[in-house]
Specification:
The complex is a heterodimer of chains A (187) and B (160). Chain A is of the alpha/beta class and 187 residues long. Helices cover 42% and strands 14% of the residues of chain A. Chain A has one domain. In chain A, helix 2 packs across helix 3 and helix 3 packs across helix 5. Chain B is of the alpha/beta class. In chain B, strand 4 and strand 5 form a beta hairpin. Chain B starts with a helix and ends in an 8-residue tail after the last strand. Classes of the chains: A alpha/beta (187), B alpha/beta (160). The interface between A and B is large, with 54 and 57 residues. Strand 1 of chain A pairs antiparallel with strand 2 of chain B, so a sheet runs across the interface.
Protein backbone atom coordinates (compact mmCIF):
# COMPACT_ATOMS: atom_id res chain seq x y z
CA UNK A 1 0.00 0.00 0.00
CA UNK A 2 2.58 2.49 1.13
CA UNK A 3 4.85 1.49 -1.76
CA UNK A 4 2.23 2.31 -4.35
CA UNK A 5 1.41 5.56 -2.63
CA UNK A 6 5.10 6.47 -2.54
CA UNK A 7 5.43 5.74 -6.22
CA UNK A 8 2.53 8.05 -7.05
CA UNK A 9 3.84 10.67 -4.65
CA UNK A 10 7.24 10.71 -6.31
CA UNK A 11 5.63 10.92 -9.74
CA UNK A 12 3.64 14.01 -8.76
CA UNK A 13 6.60 15.53 -6.95
CA UNK A 14 8.63 15.34 -10.12
CA UNK A 15 5.98 16.65 -12.49
CA UNK A 16 4.88 19.50 -10.22
CA UNK A 17 5.64 23.03 -11.25
CA UNK A 18 4.18 25.64 -9.01
CA UNK A 19 3.26 28.36 -11.41
CA UNK A 20 4.15 31.98 -10.88
CA UNK A 21 0.92 33.51 -12.01
CA UNK A 22 1.08 37.11 -10.92
CA UNK A 23 2.49 40.22 -12.47
CA UNK A 24 1.94 43.79 -13.56
CA UNK A 25 -1.19 44.26 -15.65
CA UNK A 26 -0.93 46.80 -18.44
CA UNK A 27 -3.05 47.81 -21.38
CA UNK A 28 -1.36 48.59 -24.67
CA UNK A 29 -2.73 51.46 -26.72
CA UNK A 30 -4.73 50.47 -29.82
CA UNK A 31 -2.81 50.79 -33.04
CA UNK A 32 -5.29 53.10 -34.79
CA UNK A 33 -4.44 56.67 -33.95
CA UNK A 34 -7.27 58.71 -32.40
CA UNK A 35 -9.42 60.66 -34.86
CA UNK A 36 -8.48 64.08 -33.71
CA UNK A 37 -5.29 65.28 -32.10
CA UNK A 38 -5.65 66.00 -28.45
CA UNK A 39 -3.87 69.05 -27.13
CA UNK A 40 -2.31 68.45 -23.75
CA UNK A 41 -0.63 71.14 -21.73
CA UNK A 42 3.01 70.49 -21.09
CA UNK A 43 2.59 70.89 -17.37
CA UNK A 44 0.11 68.01 -17.30
CA UNK A 45 2.69 65.58 -18.66
CA UNK A 46 5.20 63.92 -16.39
CA UNK A 47 7.98 62.60 -18.58
CA UNK A 48 10.12 59.69 -17.51
CA UNK A 49 13.05 58.68 -19.70
CA UNK A 50 15.18 55.60 -19.09
CA UNK A 51 18.51 55.41 -20.86
CA UNK A 52 20.45 52.29 -21.73
CA UNK A 53 22.43 52.37 -18.49
CA UNK A 54 19.25 52.38 -16.43
CA UNK A 55 19.48 56.05 -15.45
CA UNK A 56 16.32 58.07 -15.12
CA UNK A 57 15.58 61.47 -16.56
CA UNK A 58 12.41 62.76 -14.92
CA UNK A 59 11.04 66.13 -16.08
CA UNK A 60 14.45 66.91 -17.63
CA UNK A 61 16.30 66.18 -14.39
CA UNK A 62 18.38 63.21 -13.38
CA UNK A 63 16.67 61.28 -10.63
CA UNK A 64 17.36 58.29 -8.45
CA UNK A 65 14.93 55.42 -8.90
CA UNK A 66 14.13 55.43 -5.20
CA UNK A 67 12.66 58.95 -5.44
CA UNK A 68 10.52 58.23 -8.48
CA UNK A 69 7.47 57.04 -6.58
CA UNK A 70 7.32 60.18 -4.42
CA UNK A 71 7.89 62.45 -7.43
CA UNK A 72 5.09 60.76 -9.35
CA UNK A 73 2.79 61.05 -6.35
CA UNK A 74 3.59 64.75 -5.94
CA UNK A 75 2.83 65.29 -9.60
CA UNK A 76 -0.47 63.40 -9.60
CA UNK A 77 -1.65 64.81 -6.31
CA UNK A 78 -0.77 68.40 -7.12
CA UNK A 79 -4.18 69.83 -8.06
CA UNK A 80 -2.84 73.03 -9.60
CA UNK A 81 -6.11 74.62 -10.80
CA UNK A 82 -7.91 74.11 -7.49
CA UNK A 83 -10.73 71.95 -8.92
CA UNK A 84 -9.53 68.86 -7.09
CA UNK A 85 -10.99 68.89 -3.59
CA UNK A 86 -9.41 65.62 -2.42
CA UNK A 87 -5.85 66.45 -3.47
CA UNK A 88 -3.34 67.03 -0.73
CA UNK A 89 -0.55 68.33 -2.94
CA UNK A 90 1.16 71.70 -3.04
CA UNK A 91 -1.21 73.32 -5.58
CA UNK A 92 1.87 74.25 -7.56
CA UNK A 93 0.85 76.22 -10.64
CA UNK A 94 3.62 74.74 -12.80
CA UNK A 95 2.66 71.11 -12.11
CA UNK A 96 -0.46 69.12 -13.06
CA UNK A 97 -3.92 70.75 -12.96
CA UNK A 98 -5.98 67.81 -11.79
CA UNK A 99 -5.36 64.07 -11.31
CA UNK A 100 -7.82 63.33 -14.10
CA UNK A 101 -5.76 65.38 -16.52
CA UNK A 102 -2.33 64.25 -15.37
CA UNK A 103 -0.50 61.94 -17.73
CA UNK A 104 2.70 60.03 -17.08
CA UNK A 105 4.72 59.46 -20.21
CA UNK A 106 7.31 56.70 -20.12
CA UNK A 107 10.01 56.37 -22.72
CA UNK A 108 12.83 53.90 -22.83
CA UNK A 109 15.85 53.05 -24.90
CA UNK A 110 16.07 49.84 -26.94
CA UNK A 111 19.00 48.75 -24.84
CA UNK A 112 17.35 49.38 -21.48
CA UNK A 113 17.36 46.25 -19.37
CA UNK A 114 13.96 44.64 -18.86
CA UNK A 115 14.56 44.47 -15.10
CA UNK A 116 14.99 48.26 -14.93
CA UNK A 117 11.88 48.80 -16.99
CA UNK A 118 9.84 46.58 -14.66
CA UNK A 119 11.17 48.44 -11.63
CA UNK A 120 10.11 51.77 -13.12
CA UNK A 121 6.70 50.39 -14.08
CA UNK A 122 6.34 49.02 -10.59
CA UNK A 123 7.12 52.36 -9.00
CA UNK A 124 4.68 54.24 -11.24
CA UNK A 125 1.88 51.74 -10.64
CA UNK A 126 2.84 51.94 -6.96
CA UNK A 127 2.39 55.70 -6.97
CA UNK A 128 -1.16 55.32 -8.32
CA UNK A 129 -1.90 52.55 -5.85
CA UNK A 130 -0.63 54.60 -2.90
CA UNK A 131 -2.88 57.52 -3.81
CA UNK A 132 -5.86 55.28 -4.49
CA UNK A 133 -5.30 53.51 -1.18
CA UNK A 134 -5.31 56.86 0.59
CA UNK A 135 -8.64 57.85 -0.94
CA UNK A 136 -10.13 54.39 -0.34
CA UNK A 137 -9.10 54.60 3.30
CA UNK A 138 -10.75 57.99 3.59
CA UNK A 139 -14.00 56.98 1.88
CA UNK A 140 -14.43 53.32 2.79
CA UNK A 141 -11.87 52.65 5.49
CA UNK A 142 -9.95 49.96 3.60
CA UNK A 143 -7.22 49.68 0.99
CA UNK A 144 -8.01 50.01 -2.69
CA UNK A 145 -5.67 47.19 -3.70
CA UNK A 146 -7.43 44.85 -1.31
CA UNK A 147 -10.85 45.90 -2.60
CA UNK A 148 -9.77 45.42 -6.19
CA UNK A 149 -8.29 42.00 -5.49
CA UNK A 150 -11.53 40.94 -3.85
CA UNK A 151 -13.54 42.33 -6.75
CA UNK A 152 -11.44 40.49 -9.33
CA UNK A 153 -11.48 37.24 -7.39
CA UNK A 154 -14.04 34.95 -9.09
CA UNK A 155 -14.82 33.27 -5.77
CA UNK A 156 -16.28 36.41 -4.24
CA UNK A 157 -20.07 36.34 -3.91
CA UNK A 158 -22.00 38.25 -6.57
CA UNK A 159 -23.68 40.73 -4.23
CA UNK A 160 -20.36 41.71 -2.65
CA UNK A 161 -18.86 42.15 -6.10
CA UNK A 162 -21.68 44.39 -7.26
CA UNK A 163 -21.16 46.52 -4.21
CA UNK A 164 -17.41 46.65 -4.73
CA UNK A 165 -17.73 47.43 -8.41
CA UNK A 166 -19.05 50.92 -7.79
CA UNK A 167 -16.52 51.65 -5.08
CA UNK A 168 -13.59 50.44 -7.18
CA UNK A 169 -14.85 52.44 -10.14
CA UNK A 170 -15.20 55.56 -8.03
CA UNK A 171 -11.65 55.35 -6.69
CA UNK A 172 -10.30 54.62 -10.15
CA UNK A 173 -12.03 57.72 -11.44
CA UNK A 174 -10.44 59.86 -8.75
CA UNK A 175 -6.97 58.86 -9.92
CA UNK A 176 -7.32 57.41 -13.42
CA UNK A 177 -4.24 55.55 -14.56
CA UNK A 178 -2.95 57.45 -17.56
CA UNK A 179 0.40 55.94 -18.31
CA UNK A 180 1.46 56.44 -21.87
CA UNK A 181 4.38 54.64 -23.42
CA UNK A 182 6.09 56.26 -26.35
CA UNK A 183 7.84 54.21 -28.99
CA UNK A 184 11.36 53.32 -27.99
CA UNK A 185 14.23 55.43 -29.18
CA UNK A 186 17.10 53.87 -31.05
CA UNK A 187 19.95 55.93 -29.69
CA UNK B 1 10.71 -12.25 38.83
CA UNK B 2 11.69 -12.89 35.24
CA UNK B 3 8.79 -10.79 34.24
CA UNK B 4 10.35 -7.66 35.63
CA UNK B 5 13.89 -8.39 34.50
CA UNK B 6 12.84 -8.42 30.89
CA UNK B 7 12.21 -4.70 30.90
CA UNK B 8 15.78 -3.90 31.78
CA UNK B 9 17.39 -5.02 28.51
CA UNK B 10 17.09 -1.50 27.14
CA UNK B 11 15.60 -2.18 23.68
CA UNK B 12 13.08 0.39 22.56
CA UNK B 13 10.06 -1.04 20.83
CA UNK B 14 10.04 -0.40 17.06
CA UNK B 15 8.15 2.68 15.96
CA UNK B 16 4.78 1.72 14.64
CA UNK B 17 4.54 2.29 10.89
CA UNK B 18 0.82 1.75 10.78
CA UNK B 19 0.16 5.45 10.14
CA UNK B 20 2.75 5.73 7.38
CA UNK B 21 0.29 5.12 4.52
CA UNK B 22 -1.97 7.83 5.92
CA UNK B 23 0.83 10.36 5.95
CA UNK B 24 2.01 9.40 2.50
CA UNK B 25 -1.52 9.60 1.13
CA UNK B 26 -1.94 13.00 2.64
CA UNK B 27 1.18 14.24 0.88
CA UNK B 28 0.08 12.50 -2.29
CA UNK B 29 -3.26 14.26 -2.32
CA UNK B 30 -1.57 17.58 -1.62
CA UNK B 31 0.71 17.25 -4.62
CA UNK B 32 -2.08 15.88 -6.79
CA UNK B 33 -4.18 18.95 -6.13
CA UNK B 34 -1.46 21.56 -6.59
CA UNK B 35 0.09 19.93 -9.64
CA UNK B 36 -0.25 21.54 -13.02
CA UNK B 37 1.32 19.58 -15.81
CA UNK B 38 4.03 21.41 -17.66
CA UNK B 39 2.73 21.96 -21.16
CA UNK B 40 5.87 23.31 -22.69
CA UNK B 41 9.43 22.87 -21.63
CA UNK B 42 11.46 26.02 -21.35
CA UNK B 43 14.16 26.50 -23.92
CA UNK B 44 15.19 29.92 -22.70
CA UNK B 45 16.57 31.16 -19.44
CA UNK B 46 13.70 32.63 -17.51
CA UNK B 47 14.61 34.43 -14.33
CA UNK B 48 11.72 36.82 -13.87
CA UNK B 49 12.19 40.22 -12.25
CA UNK B 50 10.60 41.13 -8.92
CA UNK B 51 7.73 43.55 -8.44
CA UNK B 52 5.56 44.48 -5.50
CA UNK B 53 2.44 45.99 -7.07
CA UNK B 54 1.31 42.78 -8.69
CA UNK B 55 -2.05 41.37 -9.55
CA UNK B 56 -2.98 37.73 -9.77
CA UNK B 57 -3.37 36.39 -13.26
CA UNK B 58 -6.73 35.19 -14.54
CA UNK B 59 -7.62 31.54 -14.95
CA UNK B 60 -5.14 29.58 -16.99
CA UNK B 61 -7.44 29.03 -19.95
CA UNK B 62 -7.59 32.77 -20.56
CA UNK B 63 -3.87 33.29 -20.81
CA UNK B 64 -1.45 33.04 -23.72
CA UNK B 65 2.19 32.77 -22.76
CA UNK B 66 5.17 34.30 -24.49
CA UNK B 67 8.63 33.45 -23.21
CA UNK B 68 11.67 35.62 -23.88
CA UNK B 69 15.24 35.07 -22.80
CA UNK B 70 18.66 33.76 -23.65
CA UNK B 71 18.57 30.23 -25.09
CA UNK B 72 19.68 27.67 -22.49
CA UNK B 73 23.16 26.22 -22.84
CA UNK B 74 22.07 23.21 -24.91
CA UNK B 75 20.50 25.48 -27.55
CA UNK B 76 23.16 28.17 -27.53
CA UNK B 77 25.20 26.45 -30.22
CA UNK B 78 22.39 26.61 -32.75
CA UNK B 79 20.58 29.74 -31.67
CA UNK B 80 23.29 31.95 -30.21
CA UNK B 81 23.22 33.74 -26.90
CA UNK B 82 21.09 36.76 -27.78
CA UNK B 83 17.62 36.80 -26.16
CA UNK B 84 15.05 34.98 -28.28
CA UNK B 85 11.30 34.47 -28.25
CA UNK B 86 9.84 31.07 -27.44
CA UNK B 87 6.29 30.31 -28.50
CA UNK B 88 4.97 26.90 -27.43
CA UNK B 89 7.92 24.60 -28.02
CA UNK B 90 9.68 26.52 -30.74
CA UNK B 91 11.97 29.50 -31.07
CA UNK B 92 10.35 32.20 -33.15
CA UNK B 93 11.07 35.57 -34.65
CA UNK B 94 9.26 38.79 -33.88
CA UNK B 95 7.17 38.42 -37.03
CA UNK B 96 5.67 35.13 -35.85
CA UNK B 97 4.18 36.59 -32.68
CA UNK B 98 1.08 38.03 -34.36
CA UNK B 99 0.21 34.78 -36.14
CA UNK B 100 0.77 32.81 -32.98
CA UNK B 101 -1.60 35.02 -31.00
CA UNK B 102 -4.28 34.77 -33.69
CA UNK B 103 -3.89 30.99 -33.81
CA UNK B 104 -4.09 30.59 -30.05
CA UNK B 105 -7.03 32.95 -29.88
CA UNK B 106 -8.92 30.94 -32.50
CA UNK B 107 -8.42 27.80 -30.40
CA UNK B 108 -10.13 29.29 -27.36
CA UNK B 109 -13.86 29.22 -26.75
CA UNK B 110 -15.83 32.03 -28.33
CA UNK B 111 -16.74 33.74 -25.07
CA UNK B 112 -13.12 33.81 -23.92
CA UNK B 113 -11.68 35.33 -27.06
CA UNK B 114 -12.26 38.89 -25.92
CA UNK B 115 -10.91 38.51 -22.40
CA UNK B 116 -7.57 36.91 -23.16
CA UNK B 117 -4.43 38.13 -21.43
CA UNK B 118 -0.97 37.85 -22.91
CA UNK B 119 1.45 36.83 -20.18
CA UNK B 120 4.97 37.92 -21.01
CA UNK B 121 7.52 35.86 -19.16
CA UNK B 122 10.67 37.75 -19.87
CA UNK B 123 14.12 37.15 -18.46
CA UNK B 124 15.58 39.99 -16.42
CA UNK B 125 18.56 40.33 -18.72
CA UNK B 126 16.58 40.82 -21.91
CA UNK B 127 16.72 44.27 -23.48
CA UNK B 128 13.69 46.44 -24.12
CA UNK B 129 14.20 46.55 -27.89
CA UNK B 130 12.85 43.06 -28.37
CA UNK B 131 10.02 43.65 -25.90
CA UNK B 132 8.98 46.81 -27.73
CA UNK B 133 8.91 44.89 -31.00
CA UNK B 134 6.69 42.23 -29.41
CA UNK B 135 4.42 44.91 -27.99
CA UNK B 136 4.13 46.45 -31.43
CA UNK B 137 3.16 43.05 -32.88
CA UNK B 138 0.57 42.56 -30.14
CA UNK B 139 -0.95 45.92 -30.92
CA UNK B 140 -1.23 44.93 -34.58
CA UNK B 141 -3.40 41.91 -33.72
CA UNK B 142 -5.34 43.91 -31.14
CA UNK B 143 -4.18 41.84 -28.18
CA UNK B 144 -3.89 44.73 -25.78
CA UNK B 145 -4.21 43.18 -22.36
CA UNK B 146 -0.70 42.36 -21.26
CA UNK B 147 0.66 41.01 -18.03
CA UNK B 148 4.36 41.24 -17.31
CA UNK B 149 4.74 38.15 -15.16
CA UNK B 150 7.03 38.73 -12.21
CA UNK B 151 7.92 37.24 -8.89
CA UNK B 152 6.60 38.94 -5.81
CA UNK B 153 9.32 40.87 -4.03
CA UNK B 154 11.10 44.14 -3.66
CA UNK B 155 11.46 45.75 -7.09
CA UNK B 156 14.77 47.36 -6.21
CA UNK B 157 16.43 43.97 -6.02
CA UNK B 158 16.19 43.88 -9.82
CA UNK B 159 18.89 46.47 -10.12
CA UNK B 160 21.61 44.53 -8.38
Amino acid sequence: MADIAFLLLIFFLVTTTIETDAGLDRMLPPIEPPDQDVVIKQKNIFTVNINKNGQLLVEEELMDLKNLRQAAKDFLDNGGDGTCNYCKGRNDDSSSDNPTKAIISLKNDRETKYATYITVQNELVGAYNDLRNREAQRLYGRDFTEMEAEYLNPETATEIRDDLKDKVKRIQDLFPQKLSEAETSTN
Amino acid sequence: MAKFNKKKDGDLPAVSTASLPDIVFMLLFFFMTVTTMKDSSLMVENTLPNASEIKKLDKKDRVIYIFVGKPTSQYQKTFGSEPRIQLNDKFAGVGDVGDYILQERAKKAQELQNVLTIAMKVDKEASMGLISDIKQELRKVNALKVNYTTYEGDAFRNLQ
